[in-house]
Amino acid sequence: MIKAGQIGKGSCLLWKNEPHLVTDREFVNPGKGAAFVRVKLKSLRTGRVLQETIKTNDSVEEADVFDRDAQYLYADDTSYHFMDMENYEQFLVPREGLEEKVFHMKEGETYRVVMWESNPIDVTIPLKIVLEVTESAEAVRGDTVTGTTKPVKTETGLEVKVPIFIKQGDRILVNTESGEYVERVNS
Predict the structure, then answer these.
(1) Rounded CA gap, 146 and 12, in Å?
(2) Is 165 exposed, middle or buried (0-12, 13-18, 19+ CB in 10 A)?
(3) Please, are residues 38 and 49 in contact by the beta-carbon 8 Å criterion?
(4) Does the pLDDT of residue 145 top 80, yes or no?
(5) How many CB atoms within 10 Å of residue 136?
(6) pLDDT tens sequence across 32-62
(7) Does residue 120 share a domain with residue 69?
(8) Which domain holds residue 172?
(9) pLDDT tens digits, residue range 65-85?
(10) I want to staple 56 with a disulfide (CB 3.0 to 4.6 A). Which of 5, 9, 102, 142 is the partner?
(11) 169/185 Cα distance (integer angstroms)
């Protein structure tokens, strides 16, 4: 149990019998009445975000979550398939709430899988990843206005707006939070 006043951003709490990640925290001390903490919680199972207010003297149960390194094998209609790097055991991570993460995961790469009660519930992806451009329209001659972009498709199916000099086969660095192009990567 943890007092509401000690809850910090990044804490994992057991809220309504489900693990939630604290994505934002605000301590409020009004002129009248007791102080309280306003937290934004993201469900680690469904991805749903909710906002709750907790009195600072109240206690909340911490969720017992841990990370496990695993190699991403492939995805099907309902799950992501992973293999534990220590014992080669294969397991599934439900796709529900994590649908967009497939565009930031490459087969054969290692990722951190968040586990709760021995069940995988989330996949932690890096802030930036390198992807190869698989489809790109050719730049039109004379289209050289500063800041001109075009859409391309990457090896994972992610569509990104990039500068017009990027062509098929180039490798680009992409921010996984915003889905935006960062820079071209030289091999």
Answers:
(1) 45
(2) exposed
(3) no
(4) no
(5) 18
(6) 888 888 888 888 777 778 898 888 888 888 8
(7) yes
(8) 128-185
(9) 888 899 999 888 888 899 998
(10) 5
(11) 11
